[in-house]
Amino acid sequence: MATIDGLVIKDAVKVERIGVHSHIRGLGLNDRLEPAQTADGMVGQLAARQAAGFIVKMIQEGKIAGRALLITGEPGTGKTAIAMAISKALGSDTPFVSITASEVFSTEINKTESLTQAFRRAIGIQIKEETEVLEGEVVALEIDRPASGVGPKVGRLTMRTTDMETIYDLGSKMVDACIREHIVAGDVVQVDKASGRVTRIGRAFTRSHDYDAMGPQVKFVQCPDGEIQKRRETVHTVCLHDVDVINSRTQGYVALFSGDTGEIKAEVRDQINKKVLEWREEGKARFVPGVLFIDEAHMLDIECFSFLNRAIEGELSPLLIMATNRLISKVRGTDIESAHGMPSDLLDRMLIIQAEGYTSEEISRILRIRADEEGVKIDSKALELLTKLANSTSMRYCIQLISVAEVLRQRSRKESVTTEEIGKAYKMFYDSKRSEKFLTDSFIQ
Ligand SMILES: Nc1ncnc2c1ncn2[C@@H]1O[C@H](COP(=O)(O)OP(=O)(O)OP(=O)(O)O)[C@@H](O)[C@H]1O
Ligand SMILES: [Mg+2]
């Protein structure tokens, strides 16, 4: 989440309701990176979760340049779920960019540009900035309005801390800012000297008895101590890609809002790299290398793979995590058969985590967690039946049946979902195996 001038900007597109992975809150590991059978919404998959935990640790310690991770396993074994758990475990301060391999193939920008942008979105920079502010309790605010009613206003602001009191002359801009913020005597305010922005921090405690009625939004604070003029250190976190966009002359910062960034010249990127590395040397900026997650990685082609080979070895590279459910298949764009549909030189650079299948008990637990997440009451017999069905069909299909069964329960006004609703839902919607059988039975005789 970014903040601009105190406004919190939420990434509205990625806000999920009850999504497929919304029950996952982390990797479910303890301090010694040992996984619990069920924790943070994750069930089983112990070895993979522990390995993912080590990766998280490495990211947090910043030891990840030149690394890549591949999560493999059959469809529905929780590869994407593990990646989501990694993102949750990292917390919101570390950038986590998640894309699907097919997003790279767009007609507007070429594949490598699209990958480069994704890479650079996954690198955060924390830029430190020192600003001078005036902070104190307003003792009096006098505004002189011109007698004719038009023309610039001037005024005086008396501010105090517990140690001193000073009068400042205000120009018309500052007067307007104070009027806009409804500043009155007794407010504790902060004035940014560079921009002239006035922010109300709260009301002074000493004034808490001034009025009988006050809304719940009024915050009481202590009158500041020390000098009125203070130095404040603020830290802005931006990603390298945003810096690129702002500095690319053809696009400008407006492109940040439209998302229509086009291609960014290599020279611009080189210059920015040089600049931010300089800032790092001077202690003004800190890099926060994050994670770029590419799901369905077998959809990338040979050109993308060769680009990745080199990109992960760059100095400013995030950790690359890829997931695929392919076993041996053709590398896209070639006739070469290779493990996971990826060239062997890239596979050689990667650490591989294998997601394994689930036991019936684990499936039952995952289904129970999903039912809880969706707020669906399900009785134990129904859950047993659902688990059995998951063994003959797939876990994913049974997760979907939960919501269908819930709609059926509402219609029959029952307390909880029973085997009857599960049975009905099962008959109503086919799973892939039955659908395939239906096709073969009716067309190939
Ligand atoms: N260990 C687990 N704990 C809790 N939920 C899980 C676990 N594994 C999988 N799930 C849930 O099961 C569903 C299917 O898993 P997921 O989408 O991660 O499979 P996948 O391995 O990415 O499959 P595909 O190869 O088809 O992309 C998701 O809703 C996921 O959240
Ligand atoms: Mg997946």
Give structural notes:
The strands form 5 sheets. Strands 7, 8, 9, 10, 11, 12, 13 and 14 form an 8-stranded mixed beta sheet that branches. A 5-stranded parallel beta sheet has the order 6-15-16-5-19. Helix 3 (111-121) packs parallel to helix 8, helix 11 runs parallel beside helix 13 and helix 12 (395-412) crosses helix 13. It contains 14 helices and 19 strands. The protein has 3 domains: 2-122 and 290-354, P-loop containing nucleotide triphosphate hydrolases (Rossmann fold), CATH 3.40.50; 128-234, Beta Barrel (OB fold (Dihydrolipoamide Acetyltransferase, E2P)), CATH 2.40.50; 360-443, Orthogonal Bundle (Helicase, Ruva Protein, domain 3). The longest helix has 18 residues, at 395-412. It has helices at residues 46-60, 79-90, 111-121, 172-180, 240-247, 254-258, 266-282, 302-311, 344-348, 360-373, 380-392, 395-412, 419-428, 432-443, and strands spanning 2-4, 7-9, 38-39, 42-43, 68-72, 96-100, 123-144, 154-160, 165-170, 187-192, 198-204, 220-221, 229-239, 285-289, 291-295, 319-324, 328-330, 337-339, 350-354. The two termini are 57 Å apart. With 445 residues, it is α/β, with parallel strands linked by helices. Strand 8 (154-160) and strand 9 form a beta hairpin. Helices cover 36% and strands 24% of the residues. The chain binds adenosine-5'-triphosphate (ATP) and magnesium ion. The site of adenosine-5'-triphosphate (ATP) has 22 residues, from strand 4, helix 2 and helix 12. Adenosine-5'-triphosphate binds at residues 20-21, 24, 41-45, 73, 75-81, 325, 355, 366, 395-396, 399.
